[in-house]
UniProtKB/TrEMBL annotation:
Enzyme Commission code: 3.6.1.41
Listed PROSITE patterns: HD
Taxonomic source organism: Aquibacillus koreensis
Organism classification: Bacteria, Bacillati, Bacillota, Bacilli, Bacillales
Record has Hydrolase as a keyword: yes
The protein's name in its UniProt record: bis(5'-nucleosyl)-tetraphosphatase (symmetrical)
Amino acid sequence: MNREEALNLVEPHLKKTRFEHTKRVTDTAVDLAKLYNEDVGKVELAAVFHDYAKYRDLEEMRRWIISESLPKDLLTFHHELWHGPVGAILVKKEIGINDQMILNAIKYHTTGKKDMTKLEKIVYLADYIEPGRDFPGVDKVREQAEVDLDMGCFMATKNTIQFLLSKNQPIYPDTFHAYNDLLMTIK
Ligand code: DGI
Ligand code: FE
Ligand code: FE
Ligand code: FE
């Protein structure tokens, strides 16, 4: 499946602005793949489908989390965290992508996790730094992303945690695990 075919498959599932975001994430992820010698084809597919489940009905997502035995604690956290893990399930079932490396990059793109692969890091970071993003401090993360993939991911994770803390939002354990693991890696 090439990029155009993949984009045609994802487009009907997304709002216009989300589709534009998806294309920017894909361009950003492909740039990172070239910089850090990752498989461009895999990165491209993971990026195109990373937000595939973003607009699924919440009750449907809840059912997938239960029937596919995804971590039950997801249900006690904000539903914004569901579209990654559920997306990985649906991209496999509905699109037919079976490559577990690609599916995991989709699965963990919101929270990150401990011991992320290069592919997972690239999609996670591209989602954060794509040129349409306007988070406080994102320009510094963009700079670091071109120098050190782990440092870029660490800064993105740290900013996300700080943002969530400032809003008194719960932080999912995988997000902390990503933070601790990346901190150890960059030292
Ligand atoms: O789907 P996108 O908007 O492109 O981006 P995303 O999937 O990275 O993140 C969606 C939202 O999830 C974003 O507003 C930040 C939030 N988020 C990330 N990690 C955590 C989190 N929310 C909670 N409650 N806990 C987390 O650990
Ligand atoms: Fe997302
Ligand atoms: Fe993200
Ligand atoms: Fe996204």
